[in-house]
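Pasting as-is:
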Amino acid sequence: MEIEKKYLVKHVPEDLKKAERWEIEQCYLCQEPTLRIRKRNGEYILTYKNRQEPSVTEKLCVSNELEVPLTKESYEHLKQKADGICIEKTRYRIPYGKYTIELDIFHGKYEGKMLAEVEFATEREVLAFTVPEWFGEDVSGDYHYTNSFLAHPS
């Protein structure tokens, strides 16, 4: 199970160049449940994600997630069947205490959009988390900020 919070970003943090970085392309084959393919720095992955009901105590993104590797050929074949557009972004993994912040800076249609996600082991951890000053609005419960929604621009 994955428990995460998602935030808009006011500005990029200092020392971003020191963070681990991935170039990501992801495409969606199905929205509910989410079935997505992802290319990440030469690695190919198929992900099944089934979003759970939101927590009553906190605005959270909670889902069951399963990832399996794909070959490049399988990825390219499935990409032709994608619904909507493929999302392009650079993901930075930023250490923050015992957590890792994943900062996504989008390219293409969403050039410049920035979202940060933090994963937690328990809901109790979520309640104790102190957000960095560069985080903006908490958009965890807003489906408009899910990548599967962004892949289907109107």
